[in-house]
Amino acid sequence: MVTDDKGNPLPNVSVQIKGANLGTVTNLEGKYSLTAPATAKVLVFSSVDMGTQEVVIGSKAVIDVSLKGEDRTMQEVVVVGYGTQQKKAFTGSASKVDVKEFANLMTPSIDKLLAGRATGVQVTNTSGLINAPARILVRGVNSISQGQGPLIVVDNIPVISGNLAGTTNSNALGDINPSDIESIDVLKDGSATAIYGSRAAAGVILITTKKGTKGRARVNYDGFIGVSNVLKKWELLNGQEFVTIANEKLRNNSPTPLAPRAFMDAQNTSTNWLDEAFIKNALVQNHTLSLQGGTDKTGYYFSLNLSKQQGTILSNKNTAYRVRLNLDHEVNRFVKFGNNLTLSRQVDNDQNNGSNALSGAVASALRLLPNVSPYSATTATGYNINFPTANSMAPGANTQSIDDNFTNVAFTLKFNNYESDKYRLIDNFYMEISPVKGLKFRSQASADMLNDYSFQKWDPRHGDGYSNLGLVYNVNQNFLRYVWQNYFNYNLSIKKHSFFLTGGHELQSTTTKWFSAQGVGLADLFFLKENVISNSAATPSIGGNFTKVGFESFFGRFNYDFGNKYFFQATIRRDGQSSLAPERRYGNFPGFSIGWRPSEEGFWNQSPLLNKWIPEAKLKASYSKVGNSLGGFPYLTSYGPAPYGNISGLALTGVGTEALQWETSAKYDLGIDLGILRNKINLTADWFLNDVDNLVLDVPTPFSAGIPGNSITQNIGKLQNRGIELAINATVVSRKNFTWDINLNYSNVKNKITKLYEVNGAAVPYIQNGSYNLIRVGDPYNIIHGFRYAGVNKANGNPMYYKADGTMVQQNFRTGASIGGFFVANSKDDGTIGAASSLAFADRTVLGQGVPTFFGAFTNTFTYKGFTLDFMVRYSGGNKIVNTTAQEALFNQSFQNNGRDILRRWTAPGDETDVPRLYYGQGNNINQNGVAISRFVEKGDYIRLQNAALSYSFNGKAIQKFANGFIQNIRLYVQGQNLYVWTKYHGADPDNISLGGIDQSVSPQVRTFSFGLSAGF
Asked: Which of 159, 116, 119, 157 shows the shortest CA–CA distance to 134?
């Protein structure tokens, strides 16, 4: 029997005969049985987080051992490119994510689960749509115009990732079942990422899937079912409040009183249109059945998964079917081969997500009139639509219908359809040869094939499809990536000197093909099927494209270790990319790092204080140059079809730049790892600096040059990221029946633009990046640039602003004045309209930055006997958010519904409020739509109770006795995700933002509760 130092039985302890491929593992009671040959001399007992113990067999028939707990932090293996390293010898910066913390959380893809689990890794779930990918930034924004997300590598192979569906949101990472993942390592600094060269500027995420284990086959079932609801909805006016506000808008905008144009009907209709767009208690479920085991020579892991998640918006859902088979076989001590196979199918359903679209799910639900019903007993469809006379709704009790003709969201969500059906195969075969001790050659080939069949239909009776007389659209996309790697790892130890050498060659080819068919003007509703049908549309059209790009790489890494005290690493990668001009196609990307473990020095061990309180210490530093690859073929000048008189011809569509190269990033890192209080507390801290050069920017050209787009792409910009990271893992309490472990991580990242381009020899100080953001030298990326709001004039209700010199102007809407014009304001209490003035671009100022500057999480794990309680609190801040949802929708001045905050509007002299007097039709002026103003710019700081789970594991002996040995273990759990957010932000969620800090009517985040069961057989 095998127990721990407290007498508790230890399951899954490896019991091996030393020097032979013969062994077993202990059961849940810590017992084992092994028939040893006469030549066997020593048994080796080993287990994760326990010390290894060797016992001489001799004449013993029964061998019981007690394993002592051992801190494994420095013994932990870090997955690096094309190999692994022990953490004690690792001189780079990487974060290992504990997959056990989220193995049973509900999500279609793993990217959304990384939030708060690794320092330096900022994960933002920008939408409540379940199939929308998360935004991942590793140590800040590393590009302006090129890719900003990390390279994703699964089982050593770079895989296709991104939002790839033709008509819906869809996440390619959703093809990987989170329950199949063994480990996730995030490489962050240059030393760790340099082995990936031209694709490593934004970090690398390494995912390793589960493999077979020696011993009897183990069958496991993990499943849970739950419900999701919107975490927070907007508060809108009810029917009576809408009537009051609508009539007030109209009265204030007319020189003479007007009769009411909106009033309640006899039935007191009061529709909450958000309830028509969102559903309550959306069902989610996930089931995984796996088989894991192996012999001395062969290991296998096989799993089947079904995941179904209904989104909170009526038409949003994801269904995934996933199969994995991992096989490894050792032919003899020289040859080993294996294969990792992933098969998946994902079906995504979505809707029109346009933030200002007339049929946008959220945009329309926020504006539709609450005193109008979605339904009608007098129409053929049962919905309130004016088909066939108009693409509008009946006004109900109102004297007119809704302004801007927003459509009936209940109808469009039911009858319009956006669907993506994707099939994926990832096959990865390897052969490994070990001709001599310490040397391994590995040849690995993979194919990643993804096919997306997307379909979209618009009903001709109402909404987007009305003006087209109906629309159907199909697109078929095929992505195919081949990767072939040949590399070796060689280890050599001579006394205290250890040498590790890695080198290899890699080829990658990615082909993308798509074609589409569309038909508008449908002959009949019958043709609104799931495919374009020949001769069913008055105006058919087709489209398509083909691209093929390739990489060729040579790479090497050298590691030196002296006595587990001094470490040195040098890495080089030479990448060639087909997207660049032939003479500039190849680039070199080096990396260097050093490390020192003073805790291994004699002076440290001879100091009772240091040896007792800080038994482990390591210092490290690194430098590297890595790149960010370019898409397409930007060095080529392109041509396209164009009319020449009355005949077809070719014309210039883009001017290529043969001088284009990779964006490059010089990365510096200083770090320290400490084990404190006998390694009960482990601390890791890093300081980093990333100097990004050769940023690809579109440099303006004179109109007279005749260049399409009036710009040429050049490597010309620079930016910088610097910051600190801190992670603390600690065991606070460790008793026989009770333990308490904590994890705290904090990251602070500061970004600065250091150079843009020049025009006519003069440096350009800024680039306007959309309506709300500037990219300006000396400032962070995407600063929010707009006007300072001075509040509301208490005397007349006019909105007021500060000019650049500090003077105030008021925007006046009184009859006889220039409507929406600006005039000097004496004070906030004086209603006098002064001299005409202005509010110009020069009066704008920095109102904040859109990207958070600090983020992290605090995780606690409590165990008491069979109970375990886990919860994570995540935080983020330092950024501002432009609440354009409030600016353009909730405070609109049209004949549309509003948010309840508009009830705070100015109504009489002396009122003190931040909401100006209402004027019908003046929303663009009053709210300054399309421009950031401090009135709608809010702090983005928040603290979020990300998840909490309570589980109970039944006693192994009792389960086996009850089930007669058939069931080995059972764990029941309840959990909640995204439970609560503490924030001063008034929008739906502070995570619902773009990289510019813009919140624009996207679907709110969801809260999920679920109940699950894990059982081993």
From this structure: 116
Both structure tokens of 240: 């009576």
Q: How would residue 16 be classed by pLDDT, with cut points 50, 70 and 90?
A: confident
Token representation of residue 146 = 């090129």
697 within 8 A of 145, measured Cβ to Cβ: yes
H or E stretch at 878: none
Structure tokens at 788: 């300072």
Query: Pairing state of beta strands 783-792 and 932-933?
Result: parallel
Helix (H/G/I), strand (E/B), else coil: 149: coil
Residue 718 in contact with residue 692, Cβ under 8 Å?
yes
Looking from the CA of 116 toward its CB, the CA atoms found within 13 Å total: 24
Residue 872 neighbours by CB distance under 10 Å: 22
Cα(37)–Cα(48) distance, integer angstroms? 27
Q: Is 350 helix (H, G, I), strand (E, B) or coil?
A: strand
Q: Which pairing describes strands 647-654 and 638-644: parallel, antiparallel, or unpaired?
A: antiparallel
CA distance 352 to 344: 26
pLDDT bucket at 531, cuts 50 / 70 / 90: confident
User: Strand, coil or helix: what is 442?
Assistant: strand
**Model confidence over 122-156: pLDDT tens digits?**
999 888 999 889 999 999 999 998 988 999 999 99
Q: Locate 663 and state its tokens.
A: 């964006």
- What is the Cα–Cα distance from 466 to 898, expressed in whole angstroms? 26
CA distance 481 to 448: 5
Determine contact, residues 410/379, Cβ cutoff 8 Å.
no
Tell me how long the chain is: 1017
Read off φ and ψ for residue 698, nearest 5 degrees. Answer: -85, 110
| CA separation for the pair 155, 82 (Å, rounded) | 9
* Position 701 pLDDT exceeds 70: yes
| Residue 461, both tokens | 């009776």
Rounded-to-integer distance, Cα 164 and Cα 355, Å: 21
Per-residue tokens: 70: 């051992």
The structure tokens listed for 562 are 């002296």
8 Å CB contact between 750 and 721: yes
Structure tokens at 699: 């440099």
Stretch (H or E) spanning 608 = helix 608-613
Spatial distance between the Cα atoms of 384 and 377, rounded to a whole number of angstroms: 8
SS3 248: helix
The neighbouring-strand residues paired with 666 are 625, 691
H/E stretch holding 273 reads: helix 273-277
Q: Token digits for 808?
A: 């105030």
Q: 655 Cβ partners below 8 Å, 6+ apart?
A: 637, 707, 708, 712
Instruction: Say how many C-beta atoms besides its own lie within 10 A of residue 199's C-beta.
Output: 25
Q: What is the pLDDT of residues 746-799, one digit of tens each?
A: 999 999 999 999 888 888 999 999 999 999 999 999 999 999 999 999 999 999
Q: Could you tell me the end-to-end alpha-carbon distance of the chain, in angstroms, rounded to an integer? A: 21
The C-alpha angle with vertex 897 and arms to 896 and 900, in degrees rounded to 5, equals 150
E strand or H helix at 1001:
none
Q: Which helix (H) or strand (E) holds 926?
A: helix 923-926
Rounded to whole angstroms, the Cα distance separating 613 from 632 reads 55
Rounded Cα distance between 855 and 939, Å, is: 14
